[in-house]
Amino acid sequence: MSPAVAELDELWSAVGDPTRRRMLNVLLDHGEATATTLAGELPVTRQAVSKHLAVLDRAGLVGSHRRGREVRYVVRPQRLYVATRSMAQIAAEWDARLSAIKRIAEAVAREQRQQRQRQKENSG
Questions:
Q1: 84 domain residue, yes or no
Q2: Is 83 part of a structural domain of the chain?
Q3: Does residue 120 lie in a domain region?
Q4: pLDDT tens digit string along 60-74?
Q5: Quick one: which of 33, 45, 91, 123 is 20 to 30 A from 1 by CA?
Q6: Is the pLDDT assigned to residue 24 strictly greater than 90?
C-alpha cells in the first residue's frame, strides 16, 4: 500500500467514527477545548475522549498545545480540508459508477421489452 493510500485510510478511519466526528464538531464550535470539556459535551468518558483524540491526532486532524496545566486541542483545518476533498472525490467516483450501473440496467430492461414485443408479434 502506498503512503498516500495509507494516509487517506487513516483519515477515513478517523472520521468514520461518529464520536470522533462529533468531537471535531465540538472543537470547531469552540475553537479549542480540553479533553475534560469534550467529555462534558459527549456521551463518553474522559478516557475515551483521550483515546479518540489520539486517533484524530495521528491522522493529523487535531493538534494540541499546553496552556498552564491544561492541554487544549484544536482542529487542523488543512487536514480537514484534505479529508473532505478526498471524500468528495470518492463520492464523485461512486456517482459515476452508479450512473454506469443505471445505464446498463436501463439497456437490459429495454432489450427485454423489445424481446417480449418481438415474441408477441411472432406468436400473434
A1: no
A2: no
A3: no
A4: 999 999 999 999 999
A5: 91
A6: yes
- Could you tell me which residues come within 8 angstroms of residue 49 by beta carbon, excluding any fewer than 6 positions away? 23, 35, 38, 39, 42
Q: Is residue 90 part of a domain?
A: no
Query: What's the domain count of the chain?
Result: 1
Query: Domain holding 10: CATH number?
Result: 1.10.10.10
Percentages (nearest 5) of helix, strand, coil residues in the chain: 75, 10, 15
Question: Whole domain around residue 10: which residue ranges?
Answer: 3-76
**Residue-level pLDDT at 85:** 87
Task: Order the strands of the 33-34 sheet from edge to edge.
Answer: 33-34, 70-75, 62-67
Q: Under 8 Å CB-to-CB from 31, ≥6 apart: which residues? A: 74
Distance CA 108, CA 82 (A): 39
Q: How confident is the model at residue 124 (pLDDT cuts 50, 70, 90)?
A: low
Tell me the whole-structure pTM to 2 decimals: 0.71
